Amino acid sequence: MTGFALKVKTKSGQQILRNLSSNSTIQDLKNQLTTLGNIPINRLQVLNGFPPKVFDISNDNQLLSEAGLTSGDTIILEEKAVPPTTIETSSSNQSRHHVSENQLGCPGILMKRVVPADNSCLFTSIHFVLNGKIDESGSVAPLMRQMIAETISKDPDTFSEAMLGKPNLEYCKWILDDKSWGGAIELAVLSNYYGIEIAVVDTINAIINRFGEDQKYAHRVLLLFDGIHYDPLYLESLEGGDIQTIFPVDDDRILRDAEQLAQEAKSSRQFTDVNKFTLKCMICNVMMNGQVQAQQHAQSTGHTNFGEI
After folding, report:
1. Which one is catalytic: 28, 73, 106, 303?
2. Cβ atoms of residues 213 and 191 within 8 Å
3. Any catalytic annotation for residue 118?
4. Catalytic, out of 97, 98, 127, 229
5. Which residue among 70, 129, 240, 261 is least enclosed by CB atoms within 10 Å?
6. Domains of the chain, start order
7. CA distance 97 to 87
8. Which helix (H) or strand (E) holds 225?
9. ∠ Cα 208 212 214 (to 5°)
10. Is 242 tagged catalytic?
11. Where is the UBX domain (predicted)?
């Protein structure tokens, strides 16, 4: 075992595992990680590589060398969402399962979960729909930004200046800045990276833009976009208990609910069309003209509730 070390990043920081070897098994690794992260062994999720991708730990007898792990590698340790068999509903504060394959006939209400307006609302929303909970550590957005920058920099032909609106490397530097907002380009990259369709309910035009639709992914998630801010959508069962944020792509019912939500939002003017109207911040009454001023005001104050004048 001498000389073999793995760097393990967790939400509480980075640690180093030294008591393994290239001849250790995946089971040995899982035994170490469950103790290190204080995570049940059946809820361990490991990512590695750059950009990080899910590392397969299903073959308990496979050697670490056979799995491709070598001394000095860095892995990221996360906790999977609570499986449905272990859900506790006695307290509203308990984590609730967010993926369901068999609720096509289950009545529920499509609702939004408001996330902070901190320039990273897109990334916070994506994390919520994928994991069923808000990222409290604040570590997810920087990781997503880094992954997006790496993806874009490695494919300058696809991500050309014409597509990005600025040189490739300049765009990569821009998206790494925590004051920069994610949009369609980031949604396309995230859809491809996570292998899931992302349906964005546009309340300005009362339409749904589906990223990854042509890839025939098995599942989809939904976000609400009001012209400036993204919030995640989830299904609240009328019977209480679990929420659902990941849906089978053949669940046409949830798309119809999303379309109705978009229509209702547009008819009640729950959007911010910053390209066409003079705007007023409904929080501090500051007047603005156009998208640039609205974005600058939102970034400097955190205010995202605008009214049309």
Report:
1. 303
2. no
3. yes
4. 229
5. 240
6. 6-79 (3.10.20.90), 98-267 (3.90.70.80), 278-308 (no CATH)
7. 7
8. strand 219-225
9. 100
10. no
11. 6-77
Structural tokens at position 73:
């590698």
Distance separating the N- and C-terminal Cα atoms of the chain:
69
Average pLDDT for the chain? 79
- Residue 262 backbone dihedrals phi, psi, to 5 degrees: -65, -45
Which one of the listed residues 121, 231, 242, 273 is annotated catalytic? 121
**Distance between alpha carbon 41 and the CA centroid of its chain, in Å?**
23
Q: Which pairs from 135-144 meet CB under 8 Å and 24+ separation? A: 137/11, 139/11, 141/178, 142/178, 143/52, 144/186, 144/190
Q: Which residue has the tokens 């967790």?
A: 10
In the predicted model, is pLDDT for residue 75 greater than 80? yes
- What is the secondary structure of 262-281 as a DSSP string? HHHHHHTT-S--TTTSEEEE
| Residue 84: DSSP 8-state | G
Exactly one of 28, 106, 118, 219 is catalytic; which is it?
Answer: 118
Model confidence pLDDT, tens digit, residues 165-214: 899 999 999 999 988 889 999 999 999 998 999 999 988 888 899 999 98
Instruction: Give the pLDDT of residue 279.
Output: 65
281 in active site: no
Task: Name the helix (H) or strand (E) containing 308.
Answer: strand 306-308
